[in-house]
Design brief:
Blueprint lengths: L1 E10 L2 E12 L4 E4 L4 H4 L1 H10 L9 E7 L11 H11 L11 E3 L2 E2 L5 E2 L4 H10 L4 E5 L3 H4 L6 E5 L2 H9 L12 H7 L14 H13 L3 E4 L6 H6 L10 H13 L15 E2 L7 H5 E2 L4 E2 L1 H4 L4 E4 L7 H5 L2 H6 L1 E5 L4 E5 L3 E6 L20 H6 L4 H5 L3 E4 L5 H4 L8 H18 L17 H4 L3 H15 L3 H17 L7 H9 L11
Parallel strand pairs: 3-4, 5-8, 8-9, 10-17, 10-18, 11-14, 14-17
Antiparallel strand pairs: 1-2, 2-4, 6-7, 12-13, 15-16
Helix pairs in contact: 2-3, 8-18, 8-21, 20-22, 21-22
Length: 512
């Protein structure tokens, strides 16, 4: 007897439908074909134990299992439940015509319980797209899959529940997405707030501009000046995730297995802070079974690189293309995958090896040329891609001991959101452009008109600072963001001057 059940394979953040064909005939052999990897092949033992512990058994017959399409490699343990239900249906233990209406995925434990899987959200989206009535997945993934509209999602705790469901002897509770009010409440809950910061008003201003325009920023200052503290608070002033961004972010975290059990949509913008020992592959993604890296996990959020010069040069250089394209492409012999990587880069570093170059009270102990050598660990092309350079100086005792509350993140966020609304209206109808940092070069002079006086000011600054053409573009984009924060239609000279000031720590001028 031939029976078909349906599962799904995840590639990148997309899924494709996998048809599991189970054919049973006289004999005693067991065959599994369709490019299964070792984890899939080992499902035979897991299925056998799970069925025996629930009062069933794999029949002593010839069983052929084909996983179509047969030219795509099937990886992982998520097909256990799909195969087990197919075997039971082929042996007529499950008698139903409803198998074709449902996609079934789940890893079996030896006692028949269901363990969580990766990529439940992309799988549910694929099921809805292919016209399946519903999906049966482990209970821990049910809230995640319930995001998809017009799809019946059932969370399963053990294989006996699935058998009873298809035989019509029991009903399963349908998973429901959390109330939208819960999502709205959670997306404004942040661990850190700018009200905790004393002093550093110029740094807060720079981060507000960065948040308003989606600009990359680097903080340079001595140890203990507050660089990491400030960076951790940046997500609290970014605009809340919209539904599309939340779904995109959730898909990436789901595929990576980082979403957590019983989680629904990701409600706040990601903040990823990899250690400086991170490898190229861990940062951009990859592996024999390609997985998203830190830059994709930071999609729609912040990637924070602390102690930037301590990262390996090769690791930093792989950031350059994703920072421009906002996507990372991972190529293998038989496949090419794309992961979104639209992130804000926030970097922090000491100004020199000892950390006290340009310190107001302590002397730098570094020898001649060491400061320049230290800053040269970061390449010019990478520095060019960072829009805002800010020097962080220590806060004096008077400001540290001031008990008056500082401006709260929600007040700053309100100004950022207002500036983003201006940009949304400006770029309405343009695909893939949502903020000033994403402004293409062919629109630059149309959107960032600075007039003859502004051109002369910018020419003088470029000659004096030795800035590149890319830095010229960055200055114009930052000045446009500053004007948006001031609710100005045009870019004024003071907006341009402030933007130029944020390039004053460029590598060609630092440490001279």
């Amino acid at each position: 007897m031939l029976v078909k059940t349906y599962g799904s394979a995840v590639f990148g953040i997309q899924a494709i439908t996998v048809t599991v064909e189970v054919y049973m005939d006289t004999g005693i052999q067991f065959f599994m074909v369709g490019l299964p990897d070792n984890a899939v092949k080992e499902s035979h033992q897991r299925i056998e134990s799970a069925l025996r512990n629930n009062g069933y058994r794999i029949p002593g017959k010839k069983i052929i299992i084909n996983m179509a399409p047969a030219d795509i490699r099937k990886e992982g343990s998520s097909y256990d439940l799909t195969i087990a239900i197919g075997i039971l249906a082929a042996n007529e233990i499950i008698k139903t015509t409803r198998l074709e209406q449902y996609m079934i995925m789940g890893e079996l434990s030896l006692d028949g319980g269901l363990l969580p899987i990766k990529g439940a959200l992309p799988i549910a989206i694929e099921a809805q797209k292919r016209g399946f009535k519903g999906i049966l997945i482990p209970m821990q993934n049910a809230q995640e899959a319930a995001i998809v509209a017009d799809l019946e999602v059932y969370g399963i705790e053990k294989i006996a529940d699935v058998i009873a469901f298809f035989n019509g002897t029991a009903e399963l509770p349908r998973a429901r997405m959390h109330d939208s009010a819960d999502f709205d409440r959670l997306m404004l809950q942040y661990e850190y707030d700018f009200s905790d910061v004393r002093g550093q008003e110029n740094i807060k201003r720079a981060l507000e501009i960065a948040a308003a325009g989606g600009h990359n920023v680097i903080l340079i200052g001595p140890p203990g000046a507050g660089k990491t503290m400030l960076a951790k608070r940046l997500p609290s002033i970014l605009p809340p995730l919209n539904l599309q961004e939340a779904v995109e972010t959730t898909k990436i975290h789901s595929v990576a297995g980082k979403l957590g059990n019983n989680r629904s949509l990701v409600s706040i913008r990601p903040f990823r802070a990899p250690h400086h020992t991170v490898s190229n592959m861990a940062l951009v993604g990859g592996g024999s079974i390609p997985q998203p890296g830190e830059i994709s996990m930071a999609h729609n959020g912040v990637l924070f690189l602390d102690e930037l010069p301590e990262f390996k040069r090769t690791v930093l250089e792989v950031l350059r293309q994703p920072m421009e394209d906002r996507v990372v492409t991972i190529s293998r012999a038989k496949m090419t995958l794309e992961y979104p990587a639209s992130f804000m880069l926030v970097a922090a570093m000491n100004p020199c090896p000892c950390g006290f170059y340009n310190h107001p009270t302590q002397d730098c102990q570094c020898g001649a040329g060491e400061v320049k050598k230290y800053i040269n660990r970061i390449s010019g092309p990478l520095f060019d891609r960072i829009d805002i350079h800010v020097e962080v100086v220590p806060v004096d005792f008077k400001k540290l001991s001031d008990s008056r509350p500082s401006e709260h993140s929600d007040q700053i966020r309100a100004r950022v959101i207002a500036a983003r609304h201006i940009q949304e209206k400006r770029f309405e109808g343009l695909t893939g452009i949502y903020c000033n940092s994403q402004l293409p070069s062919n629109m630059l002079h149309q959107v960032c008109n600075i007039g003859e006086t502004g051109n002369q000011l910018l020419k003088t600054a470029m000659d004096k600072l030795g800035l590149s053409a890319r830095a010229y573009d960055r200055i114009l984009k930052v000045s446009r963001t500053i004007a948006d924060l001031d609710q100005c239609d045009g870019i004024k000279l003071e907006h341009l001057a402030e933007a130029i000031n944020y390039r004053s720590l460029d590598r060609d001028n630092w440490g001279r």
